[in-house]
Amino acid sequence: MNISIITIGKLKEKYLKQGIEEYVKRLSAYAKIEIIELADEKAPENLSVAEMEMVKEKEGIRILEKISDDTHVIALAIQGKMKSSEELAKEIDRLATYGKSKIAFIIGGSLGLSDQVMKRANDSLSFSKMTFPHQLMRLILVEQVYRAFRINRGEPYHK
C-alpha cells in the first residue's frame, strides 16, 4: 500500500520532526509512506473572506497537482467524520481489499482546504471538534495510520 500525506507548510519544530520520522520508520514495515510538504500561500494577518478563499484556492491547486486519478483521498477537516482507531483501521483494510493501493491524506494550511480539494476527497476525517496546528496533526495522523496497520495485523498496541 502507498500512503501519502500531503500537507501545506514546512515543519520547523525539531520534536515534531523526530516523532514523525519515528512513526514513518515504523510504518515502512507495512506500507510505503511519503510526506509531501507544499508551500503555504503568503498572506497578511487580516484577510477578507474573498482573500481567504483565494489563498485556499491557490494552496488547493498545489495539493491537487500531487494527487493521481487512482488515489483514494481522505481530507482532514473539522467538519469531517470522527472515527475510532479501529474504524480507521477497518477503512484502510477495506480499501486495500478492494484494490485501492494509493491513499492520500490531506492536511490543509491554517485557513483549511479549498472547495476543490474537498470535492476531490473521497472521504473526510476529523480527529476532534478542536482545532490543532497542522504541524501537530501530521504527527497525530502518522501515529494513527501506524496504529491502524498494527490493529489490522492483530499486533499488540496500546489502547
TrEMBL record:
Its main location: cytoplasm. Keywords: Cytoplasm, Methyltransferase, rRNA processing, S-adenosyl-L-methionine, Transferase. Its EC number is 2.1.1.177. Signal peptide: none annotated. GO terms for biological process: methylation. It is found in: Cytoplasm. S-adenosyl-L-methionine binds at residues 76, 108, 127-132. It catalyses: pseudouridine(1915) in 23S rRNA + S-adenosyl-L-methionine = N(3)-methylpseudouridine(1915) in 23S rRNA + S-adenosyl-L-homocysteine + H(+). Pfam families: SPOUT_MTase (PF02590). GO terms for molecular function: methyltransferase activity. It comes from the Bacteria. Homodimer. Belongs to the RNA methyltransferase RlmH family. Specifically methylates the pseudouridine at position 1915 (m3Psi1915) in 23S rRNA. NCBIfam families: PRK00103.1-3, tRNA_RlmH_YbeA. This is Ribosomal RNA large subunit methyltransferase H. It comes from Ectobacillus antri. The lineage of its organism: Bacteria, Bacillati, Bacillota, Bacilli, Bacillales.
